[in-house]
Here is the input.
Amino acid sequence: MEKEERIELNWFTKMIAPLIGLKVQESEVSSEGVILFKDEVMDCFVPAVLLNELPEKLLFETMIYEQEDGTEWIGGSGNGFGNERMVPAGPSKSRRSRNKTKSRWGN
Here is the structure.
């Protein structure tokens, strides 16, 4: 595992998960990087006041943990291209149903 990935994973398992009452092992968390345009970022992940100051394209590193009951927790950090500023994102909670993910924000 890359050192940068480990930093993000440690942030999620040691800092974020305990804040929301979860005890999570690193091996239970999946992660992915994704490039999003600002209009694709939900304001529940990054408040509009922060998003307005960022470049049009953002790179997010997300950590995802799914509980046995199907509840999915997502946390991540974002970085604008050419911008060293890190933006905390999440965590959010969603519950998977058969073929659709429902979030607590009704999306």
